[in-house]
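Figure 2 data, in text form.
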Amino acid sequence: MLESFKTRMRAALLRVASPFTKLWRASHFERNQKLDQTLITSLRDGKKIPSWRQLRYLAKFYTEREVLVTRLASLLLIVSLAVLGFSLYKTYVKIMPAVGGEYVEAVVGSPTYINPLFSQTSSVDQDLTRLVFSSLVNFDGNGALTPDLADSFTIDDKQTTYTFILKPDLRWHDGEPLTADDVVFTVQSIKDVNFKSPLYSAFRNVQVRSDDERTVSFTLSEPFSPFLSLLTFGILPAHLWSDIDPLHASLAELNLKPIGSGPYLFASLSKDKKGNIREYLFERFEDYHQTGPFLKQITFKFYSSLDEAQAALVDGNVDGLGLVASSINNQPAAGNQNVHQLDLPQYTALFFNQGANAALADKNVRQALALATSRKQIVAATFGANAEPIDDPLLSFFGQNIEKPPEMIFDPAQAAALLDASGWRKTDGDNIATSTQANIQLGLPESASAPYVRQKKIKRDNKEELVNLEIKLTTVQKDENIQVAEKIRELWQGVGVKVNVEIVDLSRVQRDVIKPRAYEVLLFGQILGRDPDPYPFWHSSQANDPGLNLALYNNKEADKLLEEARRTTDPDKRARDYLEFEKKLNADIPAIFLYSLKYSYLLPNNIQGVKAVKINQTSDRFSTINEWYVKTQKRLHFR
């Protein structure tokens, strides 16, 4: 009963209060509306910034059109701010290399001397030496000389004195300071016959002195333009090597556990049960005098053959591998590797020994053979993208401003006309087929015979006799050389020249072929070295052993140009001399230049900062290794 009474009383009170409640609500709404209007109206006062509370009520007093315009303007403002923010991010926030990561490379061979005074005879030693030691100057990724330890250098007016100023605060891996005295000690060690350095002959007449801790000078007896390129050898720490007897320098432990000033320092090595070195570990040098290094560790693993090294790459035991294009198409699949094709100062040519075959003494015959040689066909059939056809020995990657000679065309018809003009006539080819058994032994097609052979009437002992136009082509026992030799035989026999291919084992070629100049035409490659100086390969004084003038080229005017070119340090003067020399060389046709091999360098695709394009020797692939990286970081950059 009590609950029912309470309910009835509550209902009665609500009926009585309802009109008053409605009146209060209406009054409250009107009061809030007036307050909203006051807030909005106050926005017109330019003396103060509207509050968020004021802005919330704008929509209640805008028309639909005003609301739409406001929303579009707001959207445009948001997009503009986003674009501005992204632009500022792209402009001032840079992705930079960071320290971290490692790299493992497969190397064919084994190290012996990680010492810049002994490493010249081994590509493996040169590779490791390049990481550990620094030089006064060195080659960059484009094959051009650039300062390394040197801060600057000058050459006097006589072009015989070179003065270098070292960078400040240089350090060895053991923390000791590197000074001009270390440079002087290294050069004096090279000049010491007891040290037995391969660099001895290049520096025996060079005088060196230090003027202070950062200044070192070299004095030559006469100008020699390639001298700067000779200064790319690593500098030894005098405080460690000065106590070692030069007679026993090759036995020093420092040859295998070196201390240098390069981007990476020796950390450890491991050997197998037979004592052979199987692995080298290098760590980044934190006090290196240039950018980086960024990779924390670099490991070299050594293999006895290219097949083993390739297998290690395919199996993932190593990250990278360097290959000369001579391996033709046997390179492993790239997989997660990038293949870097690097230019090498190397060319392969056909060298004519005009004294060994009377036909080759006729310039028309040599020119005909050149016109009958298709470099593009040879490269495409054997090397693909791993070599480049060339027409001259002065390769453009040397950085000299040398005008490219006219391209040697492939014109068998013109070649035939030249042979006709020299009296070499077509005859029936039935009696000149090459030996089938000999072809099989050489790995050549059984039917490698000429469709016809040219013959010429020669007077001997007052009698005329027909002589075949027959040439012996000699080359080294290598798969790619045999393939190239066969292609040349095919091309030359197409114009009626009988070609006999002689294959010589690599172990015999120097002793039995090159030293006695026992060849008519030699298919051979030459590595030019670190300076574009053709003198060792084309000056007449180098025609006999141990010279490298394999064509026995003899032209006094050409000799004079080569002599003048190596006596000047003016690159434009050298370029002009080389251009004139090349014109004479092309006119005389002592050789047919075929191709320049590429160096294929397989690196994992996560390695960034690799800038090498042109190298002077295979170890120069590490010319910018201090800039390689796998880790990155973001930094504000306001410059």
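Caption note: The longest strand covers residues 591-604.
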